[in-house]
Fold these 2 entries.
Entry 1:
Amino acid sequence: MTAAIEGFLLSIGLILAIGAQNAFVLRQGLKRQYVFTVTTICALSDAALIGAGVFGLGSLIREVPDLIMVVTVGGAVFLFVYGALALRRALSPGALQAAEDQGLSYRAAILTVLAFTFLNPHVYLDTVVMLGSLSARHDLDGRMAFWLGGALASATFFYSLGYGARWLSPLFARPSAWRVFDVIVGVIMWGIAASLLATLF
């Protein structure tokens, strides 16, 4: 139980920060589009990554720094493009009507959330390397409990974010709110992209 609580709290601490993936989940929640699919992909991906770290993949990641570099560059490019699209939406009044905006297709939403998840080098450093290393002091049963606690934390967070967003729907019924939201998202995406590229120099 102690290991499970530790895994839960550490995982929550790592994913609470407003990042690219969280902003996308929030947007889909506000639009009520594919919320279950998007949040489930996030939760299952985190569970798989945490499990990989807890059960040994973390050491491999540390030994192959070129892998992190490739993911870093790919992630930065993806975030820059997505940020540009968000800023373009903010400048285009016709795209700000939530009721009329059809948003992403089902396939595009899946591909986008997968890109936010697996093209982010921090997800490997946080879930695979960091959580994997922190779990190493437990025995096998303890590591299993640690992993389950971390997976539960991720699922709790993403389902709460995706489905809790609907409480903000009255605010986002106004085009001006979407304008502000997309500007913030665009700035966050570009900021994260710049910080990723900065780690290479």
Entry 2:
Amino acid sequence: MQYMPVSELKRSKNLWASLSESKEVVLTRDGKPGALMVEVTGENLEQVVQAVRGALFSQAVRNARERARFDPPSEQDIAREIQQARQ
């Protein structure tokens, strides 16, 4: 996996070369990861987008379960969430 500062996007040839070589590039801002760019084609765009969305959703569920395991919601919290969802 290659890392590239967001300021480097001005030189798009470097970005395309990196994507062609490694198929994915992590964009950084102030040295910290901020975005992931993945090489796609016209034929696989929809499948790649669906796969990324599915992976992000799965990770969000895992994170929520992990938080709930260490800090379980109270009965009041659950009732409040249910009430808000019904509104």
